């Protein structure tokens, strides 16, 4: 196959059907089979781009120097015109070979080894409710349950269906006038999902290819302006101020510890952890020096050594979060069942492609999720303990060792060393050797960890209140990021409190821009939104918290209706979700 020859869409489908990792970058068709296991950003980041034009994503997450290396994987050029995105296999896309096999004796291209074990696993199989037909599974909205002949649906999967159920006024004297969904629980889930899809289709630009192409081109022009105007240049003076603040907080904690002011020491240690993790975030995005080795080492020193949290785990999940933001089946940042559910899609007991684990919707979820708006802040207060667990599970798992064949081979042993040092210093020298009693030890741990709660609230604030609907593969990168992410408004003098995470919408469009430049860049992003008619969500901190709580309450109310549907099924013997 000639590297400069045109490869048709059908030929790309054939390659993907054979298990090859093929995507589009600019006008090139790339085959990344040999790079999949070596990618420092993790294999999932690539698998979510299979069959798609990934130009905007690649340029957003990589430096121009890395763009040039992409050409080494080129196997040809895409056909002229706009590429029609396919649904990647990991997201349920089904690819079937379209071109006939060559006649006997004719030369054939020699395929590189297929994905093998991965495609055989449940994460690559078509997930429940996502089966497609032909070579692409592009659906602009969820398909509701119907009694129609399945054979008819096969050729008309974009046509909205009617659910097996209706809303009726309850005849229960205890709840006069209350509307109850009478029918199949699965149909109720379809209905709930469709409400969100309908809202997004009404509020955001059309998925018409011409409209999305215009958005894509304006985003590319904006990105070029971001590069030309130096937004990627790191303001090192600001990091000098950061180091001074970190040193002051840590020093205050140690002075208080020396004088036996245990809770004061714990409070300032928590503030130190809260503030310094913002720099770990920057370094993990290669936004400080731009060097993979230097920034990775900085991120591990801050995250693993100073805070006991695996940056490798964070990058592995965070890269996927950035690419497929707020997708219930694929974004690990919103997969928190049974404690929290931000989408009715979780009612289906979805399988996570990141964790390779099924989040089963069960009786526990039925009990906890209706009250999630009340448990949100208490859980955020102790969320750090869960991060410790996830960090160690990552560094001891095959997911971490999969980086061993790339230039990131050294990350895993360094993470284990740094995290062990953290627990020796914090767990043994401070808690065990310095603090006098178990009561003080427990109180010290709780105070220092609860103080970091605003960080966990900040992380969830910009996404949990936003859309989780899937509008289809035709949606541009820029529109999806702005549809699923919001910014938090605050005075400039408070930027250090939020650590730049209040500019999440801007950050999701340009993840490598140092956070100290995001406030200036916000002006350009708002102009971009105005020109493309994409709503730009900007709320104050209190309003943003209210939006998240409202979303949690909305899904909680849906769960109550879901339980009523399940009771209806039990009473009528109807077939449904369980």
UniProtKB/TrEMBL annotation:
The chain crosses the membrane at residues 376-397, 409-432, 438-457. GO terms for molecular function: metal ion binding; oxidoreductase activity, acting on paired donors, with oxidation of a pair of donors resulting in the reduction of molecular oxygen to two molecules of water. Keywords: Heme, Iron, Lipid metabolism, Membrane, Metal-binding, Oxidoreductase, Sphingolipid metabolism, Transmembrane, Transmembrane helix. CDD domains: Delta6-FADS-like (cd03506). This is Delta 8-(E)-sphingolipid desaturase. It is found in: Membrane. One of its GO terms (biological process) is sphingolipid metabolic process. GO terms for cellular component: membrane. Pathway: Lipid metabolism; sphingolipid metabolism; Sphingolipid metabolism. The keyword Lipid metabolism applies. Residues 78-120, 147-178 are annotated as: Disordered. Residues 23-79 form the Cytochrome b5 heme-binding domain. It holds the Pfam family FA_desaturase. The lineage of its organism: Eukaryota, Fungi, Dikarya, Ascomycota, Pezizomycotina. Residues 151-160 have a biased composition (Basic and acidic residues). Belongs to the fatty acid desaturase type 1 family.
């Amino acid at each position: 196959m000639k590297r400069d020859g045109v490869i048709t869409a059908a030929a790309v489908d054939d390659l993907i059907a054979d298990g090859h990792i093929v995507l589009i970058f600019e006008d090139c068709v790339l085959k990344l089979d040999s790079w999949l296991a070596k990618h420092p950003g993790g294999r999932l980041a690539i698998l979510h781009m299979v069959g798609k034009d990934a130009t905007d994503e690649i340029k957003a997450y990589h430096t121009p120097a890395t763009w040039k290396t992409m050409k080494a994987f080129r196997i040809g050029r895409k056909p002229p015109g706009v590429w029609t995105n396919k649904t990647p296999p990991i997201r349920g896309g089904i690819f079937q070979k379209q071109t006939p096999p060559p006649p006997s004796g004719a030369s054939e291209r020699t395929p590189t080894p297929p994905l093998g074990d991965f495609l055989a696993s449940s994460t690559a199989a078509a997930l429940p409710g996502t089966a497609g037909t032909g070579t692409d599974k592009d659906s602009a909205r969820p398909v509701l349950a119907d009694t129609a002949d399945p054979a008819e649906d096969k050729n008309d999967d974009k046509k909205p269906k009617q659910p097996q159920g209706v809303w009726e006024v309850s005849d229960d004297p205890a709840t006069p006038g209350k509307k109850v969904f009478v029918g199949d629980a699965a149909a109720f889930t379809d209905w709930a999902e469709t409400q969100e899809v309908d809202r997004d289709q009404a509020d955001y630009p059309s998925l018409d290819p011409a409209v999305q192409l215009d958005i894509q081109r304006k985003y590319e022009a904006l990105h070029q302006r971001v590069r030309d105007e130096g937004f990627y240049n790191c303001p090192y003076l600001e990091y000098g101020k950061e180091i001074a603040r970190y040193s002051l907080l840590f020093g205050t904690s140690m002075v208080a510890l020396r004088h036996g002011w245990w809770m004061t020491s714990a409070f300032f240690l928590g503030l130190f952890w809260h503030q310094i993790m913002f720099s770990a975030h920057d370094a993990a995005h290669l936004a400080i020096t731009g060097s993979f080795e230097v920034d990775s080492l900085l991120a591990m020193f801050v995250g693993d050594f100073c805070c006991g949290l695996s940056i490798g785990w964070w990058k592995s999940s965070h890269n996927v979060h950035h690419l497929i933001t707020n997708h219930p089946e694929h974004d690990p940042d919103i997969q928190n069942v049974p404690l929290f559910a931000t989408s009715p899609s979780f009612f289906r007991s979805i399988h996570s492609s990141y964790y390779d684990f099924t989040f089963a919707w069960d009786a526990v979820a039925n009990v906890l999720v209706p009250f999630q708006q009340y448990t949100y802040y208490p859980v955020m207060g102790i969320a750090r303990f869960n991060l410790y667990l996830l960090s160690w599970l990552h560094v001891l798992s095959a997911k971490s060792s999969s980086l061993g064949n790339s230039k990131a081979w050294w990350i895993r042993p360094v993470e284990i060393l740094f995290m062990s040092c953290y627990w020796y210093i914090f767990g043994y020298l401070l808690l065990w050797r310095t603090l006098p009693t178990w009561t003080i030890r427990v109180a010290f741990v709780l105070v220092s960890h609860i103080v970091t709660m605003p960080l966990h609230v900040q992380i969830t604030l910009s996404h949990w209140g936003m859309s989780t609907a899937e509008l289809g593969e035709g949606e541009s990168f820029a529109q999806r990021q702005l549809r699923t992410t919001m910014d938090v408004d605050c005075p400039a003098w408070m930027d250090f409190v939020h650590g730049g995470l209040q500019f999440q919408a801007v950050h999701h469009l340009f993840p490598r821009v140092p956070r100290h430049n995001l406030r200036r860049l916000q002006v350009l992003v708002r102009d971009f939104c105005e020109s493309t008619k994409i709503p730009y969500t900007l709320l104050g901190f209190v309003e943003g918290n209210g939006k998240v709580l409202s979303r949690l309450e909305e899904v909680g109310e849906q769960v109550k209706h879901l339980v009523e549907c399940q009771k209806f099924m039990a009473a009528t013997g109807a077939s449904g979700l369980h």
